[in-house]
Specification:
Oligomer: single chain
Helix content: 55-70%
Number of helices: 3
Order of helices and strands: HHH
Largest sheet: none
Number of strands: 0
Radius of gyration: 10 Å
């Protein structure tokens, strides 16, 4: 779960759209140590957008 939190922390920013912030916040509240395939794809997309 720590890996997921670390990934969210690297992407999260107050400059993000509210809907994206809410998505990341909801991922951080999950009570499971994995992401679904769709959650993983969306987080990967956000990470790629944040890096450049």
């Amino acid at each position: 779960m720590q890996v997921i939190f670390d990934r969210i922390s690297r992407v999260y920013s107050s400059e993000l759209e509210e809907s994206v912030q809410k998505f990341l916040e909801s991922l951080g509240k999950l009570n499971r140590a994995y992401l679904t395939a769709l959650e993983e794809k969306v987080l990967n997309l956000l990470e790629s957008e944040a890096s450049g």
